Amino acid sequence: MSISGKWEGKLVDATGAMASIELNMADKDGRVAGDFGLYFLVDDPGCCGPQRRLSQTGEVRGQVRRDGSVRLDYKVMAGLKPVAVVFEGRLSETNGHAKQALLGCFEASDGQDALTLRGGGAVLWQYAGQ
Amino acid sequence: MAKFGGEWRGRLVDAAGFEGTVTLDMRGRGGKVSGRYHAALFTQHGDAGRKGKLAGRMEDGKISLTLRPERDNDPKIELTGTVFPMGKGMGLKGIYEIEQRKFSPLVRGVMCACNDWQAALPETRIENPQAGRRKAKAPR
């Protein structure tokens, strides 16, 4: 069970915020390392749909377990202070949409009040050839 | 104590690639949760609506809900998640499963919502999808 490769997906937060996420990950012996980019999606009343605004980039570490559950740890900046965020999810089938999906919920361990995102979920997809 | 009851609005994203908005009208008493739901699913063929009753339990910040559709051929949705204080109300995040996958484009996904719109971001507030569908009064 591997999650190595490129992933892209959507994050939804209890505040109503939406973001797109890109992840590049490699795993070995259950350990995961990689990097992520988080882009807030802001509705544009024009013709071009939601606009992407780069919000955060950083490193991600974690583990993938034999039962398909995945934990990812990363840090986001709230001002000048890093805030640790934990994503707990699992691999899923996608009904043909992608090769596999990773879905779960995230939570900031400390300093959550300073974040735009307060807690929510994310679905990441790995498409064929990625 | 944060307010639990009332209208919750939020979003869902499904592993099958679909997205939508949800409205949960919930009340809680003695750990039991009941109410109604409305989900608007964005598809290539337009918005598909789902609505019905919801029931479940909430204890120690954990919540489990069963969303039962009004129409027999719509799938039942099981949501397992957590609730947490957010502003003067609460936020919700969780993973849902589709019980009868046969009749649904959905597989499983994530759902989140909140019931305090002062705490939500102004630019991301989700309007009630049913709010604009009331019949307009005829002019006198």
Report what the structure shows.
The complex is a heterodimer of chains A (130) and B (140). With 130 residues, chain A is mainly β. Chain A is 0% helix and 65% strand. In chain A, a hairpin with a 4-residue loop joins strand 4 and strand 5 (69-78). In chain A, 38% of the residues are buried. The model of chain A has no long low-confidence stretch (mean pLDDT 88). In chain B, strand 1 (6-14) and strand 2 form a beta hairpin. Chain B is mainly beta and 140 residues long. Chain B is built from no helices and eight strands. Chain B has strands at residues 6-14, 19-29, 32-43, 46-59, 62-69, 77-86, 89-98, 108-114.
Give a brief description.
Chain A has one domain: Lipocalin (Beta Barrel), CATH 2.40.128.120.
Structural class of chain A: mainly beta
- Percent of residues of chain A in beta strands? over 45%
Number of domains of chain A: 1
> Cα-atom Rg of chain A, whole angstroms?
15 Å
Taking the alpha carbons of the first and last residues of chain A, their distance comes to 15 Å
Work out the radius of gyration of chain B. Answer: 15 Å
SSE order of chain A: EEEEEEEE
